What does this fold into?
Amino acid sequence: QVQLVESGGGLVQAGGSLRLSCAASGRDFSISGMGWYRQAPGKERELVAAITSGGVINYAESVKGRFTISRDNAKNTVYLQMNSLKPEDTAVYYCNARVRFTLSAGLWDYWGQGTQVTVSS
It folds into this structure.
């Protein structure tokens, strides 16, 4: 079992910034990758940004140049720095961790509870 704790969401005006954090905890696991997804009302959940433990990064086209994902492998923590926020960024943001357990085969996905990001005009 892996637990993900998210923080950093909130209200911000268009053009402002927020920094999201997500820390993974548990036993006998290693992280293959961590990332952020978001879901706005009436829309499908979408990938925002993801990063592997080796540092390979993938961004949604809509956030390139504005968002930056980073991680601290020693702390099993991933961050999402969001700059130049737009109203269209308003959504619930979910942290994801893809992990491998020491004594088990395969990869497993775990999700945080979500944090609301609201960007006003």
